[in-house]
UniProtKB/TrEMBL annotation:
<dbReference type="InterPro" id="IPR031304">
    <property type="entry name" value="SLT_2"/>
</dbReference>
<dbReference type="Pfam" id="PF13406">
    <property type="entry name" value="SLT_2"/>
</dbReference>
<dbReference type="GO" id="GO:0008933">
    <property type="term" value="F:peptidoglycan lytic transglycosylase activity"/>
</dbReference>
<dbReference type="GO" id="GO:0009253">
    <property type="term" value="P:peptidoglycan catabolic process"/>
</dbReference>
<protein>
    <submittedName>
        <fullName>Glucose-6-phosphate 1-epimerase</fullName>
        <ecNumber>5.1.3.15</ecNumber>
    </submittedName>
</protein>
<dbReference type="GO" id="GO:0047938">
    <property type="term" value="F:glucose-6-phosphate 1-epimerase activity"/>
</dbReference>
<dbReference type="InterPro" id="IPR043426">
    <property type="entry name" value="MltB-like"/>
</dbReference>
<feature type="domain" description="Transglycosylase SLT">
    <location>
        <begin position="42"/>
        <end position="342"/>
    </location>
</feature>
<keyword id="KW-0413">Isomerase</keyword>
<dbReference type="InterPro" id="IPR023346">
    <property type="entry name" value="Lysozyme-like_dom_sf"/>
</dbReference>
């Protein structure tokens, strides 16, 4: 009996530390289970009543919501996004590796003519478009397996956001218009879908037929996905400078680092400290590996600011206006850095990172 008690105690303690379920997750699971039993039906009735004003007939609404349900995982992750809690090293290691870099180069070679045409049309380096899809879905290899319609139903019913309801109706329109099949309409827990990870409302606003076959297919047509991404950038006041890196990995002089009091682990980005590359060079800033900051491939007049995602621990970057352009597409600094690093590799075949260890 004593042995059984001790064994049970050890197992309980072990589970607290080793199981990958956080206390906040458990609380959210309980919160989901305690939702009113009538919530699903009540919300469905409310959404149905407003369907005609959102371009959906009652007949179509009933047809596509016959098996609708609330998703526990979507409910929990919407309230506890662990990606936002990851440290920088873990995040970059997860989204960039050697194979992704090599696959990106292969895609650039395979679709070169079409990518150049799209880049010229939307005035952006094709390598950026490929980098975005590389970070979003690993070039279409990771599309998610969550019902997009159920995800938006869950969010519309459990979050106070009018846009979520609009996306629920837009998801029904995508099914009604036969743009996607019900059994293929899968995506992320949040309701994003396809290689671009568009939300349903964005599809109707931004998706384009890049390959000219008369069908917009964000699941299977890489060129449709790239062209739609380019159109998205274009519609978001996107301003891109050709052949200019979004970030430049650098070494900073110790005295300058001391002067700004960087904290370990705290992200630093001071847009007021903007200088031209030549001026950074004068105070001792150089590329990683003690290479000259200015060369024949980059304008010495280019204005940049220091970005230290990990604070005093490094690595350190000078970021250009192209970095901010990526932020116009996705406001996450982590996302913007990941896209910037992959773009640098695809465009300039630079090492992804020299002073920051990542996988492979």
């Amino acid at each position: 009996m004593i042995f059984q008690y001790l064994y049970f105690s050890v197992i309980c303690i072990y589970s607290l530390f080793c199981f990958n379920i956080h206390a906040s997750d458990l609380e959210l699971y309980r919160e989901f289970e305690s939702l009113p039993s009538t919530l699903c039906d009540d919300c469905l009735v409310s959404l149905r009543n407003n369907a005609p004003t959102n371009g959906i007939s009652f007949e179509d609404f009933d047809k596509f919501t016959n098996d609708i349900k609330l998703l526990k995982r979507t409910f929990v992750l919407a309230r506890n996004q662990k990606d936002l809690q990851e440290d920088w090293t873990s995040y970059i290691s997860k989204v960039i590796n050697k194979k992704k870099c090599i696959d990106g180069l292969k895609i650039l070679n395979e679709f070169r003519d079409q990518l150049i045409e799209i880049g010229n049309t939307y005035q952006v380096d094709p390598e950026l478009l490929v980098a975005i899809l590389g970070i979003e879905t690993n070039y279409g290899k990771i599309l998610g397996n969550t019902s997009v319609l159920n995800a938006w139903f869950t969010r519309a019913c459990t979050e106070n956001n009018l846009l979520w309801k609009k996306n629920f109706y837009a998801a029904i329109r995508l099914l009604r218009d036969d743009i996607v099949k019900p059994d293929k309409f899968l995506g992320s827990w949040s309701g994003a879908f396809g290689m671009t990870q568009f939300i349903p409302t964005s599809f109707y606003e931004l998706a384009v037929d890049g390959d000219g076959d008369g069908v917009i297919d964000l699941y299977n047509s890489f060129i449709d996905a790239v062209a739609s991404t380019a159109n998205h950038l274009n519609k978001r006041n996107f301003s891109w400078k050709y052949n200019v890196p979004a970030v430049i990995e650098v070494s900073l002089p110790e005295d300058w680092l001391d002067s700004i009091n960087l904290e370990h682990g705290k992200t630093y980005l001071d847009i007021s400290e903007k200088r031209k590359l030549k001026d950074w060079s004068i105070i001792g800033v150089c590329r990683i590996g003690n290479r000259e900051l200015c060369n024949e491939f980059i304008d010495s007049e280019l204005e940049t600011v220091v970005f230290a995602p990990n604070g005093s621990h490094g690595p350190f970057f000078l970021v250009t206006e192209n970095f901010y352009s990526i932020l116009n597409y996705n406001r996450s600094y982590r996302y913007a850095l990941a896209v910037s690093l992959l773009f640098n590799f695809l465009k300039f075949e630079n090492d992804v990172l020299s002073s920051w260890t990542i996988n492979n």
